[in-house]
Inverse folding.
């Protein structure tokens, strides 16, 4: 009668494999979360940089007007691009490439004389959730501010 001796095979147990997979899942989750945060911050930073060019172009526009007045209307992204690019700025003709879309433009006439001495321009950063600070940017002649969380 022959006896077969059971030998230990080299390899991993099911528990060891489960632990390794769980560690990889946790690391992957942290990496994706960090990547998404940096991607959103990058989009917001690009919009803030473009906002400075918009402010400069609007100041250039006002400087060319006899009454130093800002525009009465900016209806959409296309009209914003036309105005900015005509006054020394450079915006992409499509909002998806620029990273933001125009939400609203409000000219301010403090003296009720038909000349707009100031404005508020609000842009929405594309593909950034409204739960993140900076999901929109408010531009005025004196400042650029990130919108807070909703």
């Amino acid at each position: 009668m022959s006896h077969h001796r059971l030998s230990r095979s080299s390899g991993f147990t099911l528990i060891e494999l489960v632990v390794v997979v769980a560690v990889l899942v946790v690391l992957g989750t942290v990496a994706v979360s960090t990547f998404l945060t940096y991607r959103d911050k990058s989009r917001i930073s690009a919009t803030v940089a473009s906002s400075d060019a918009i402010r400069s172009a609007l100041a250039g526009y006002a400087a060319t007007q006899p009454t130093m007045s800002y525009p009465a209307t900016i209806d959409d992204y296309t009209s914003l691009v036309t105005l900015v690019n005509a006054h020394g700025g450079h915006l992409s003709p499509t909002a998806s490439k620029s990273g933001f879309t125009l939400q609203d433009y409000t000219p301010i006439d403090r003296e009720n004389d038909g000349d707009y001495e100031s404005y508020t321009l609000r842009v929405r950063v594309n593909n950034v959730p409204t739960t993140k600070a900076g999901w929109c940017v408010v531009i005025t002649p004196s400042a650029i501010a990130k919108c807070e969380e909703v």
About this structure: The helical segments are 14-64, 77-86, 95-98.
